[in-house]
Design goal:
Blueprint: E1 5-10, E2 18-21, E3 26-30, E4 36-40, E5 49-55, E6 62-69, E7 72-80, E8 88-90, H1 116-124
Antiparallel strand pairs: 1-2, 1-8, 2-3, 3-4, 5-6, 6-7
Amino acid sequence: LYNYNSILDNSVEGNDWEMWVYGSGEFAGRIQSGSVRGFWMEAQTWYHIAMTWSRNADRSDVIDQWLYINGELIATNESEWVDPGSTVYLGGGHSGNDDCNGAFDDFRIYDRALTIEDVAELVSLGQ
């Protein structure tokens, strides 16, 4: 593991809409402000990661964000809305972010926020 091992990035701003792993193994993700973090990963280990978000029902400029690892809710966050751009980069993206040193088995983007039941079903299917 090395610091800022990039998992996901966007095409607008290197510090928005991203996921990464710190050198300590801690996973982190953010949309714009704050982050969801608090799970420490180990090298040579597979993890099921689901980060889901949706616009806040009361404030359209706020995004509610949830991080699940191996089907367990790890952290939540509220963030300001920022445009993610038209491109998602797996394993890197912006020149200021390091590329990923890892492997992806399955990657999906849904057009809705997943529920905890949705995430649990995906984990049980091995996906």
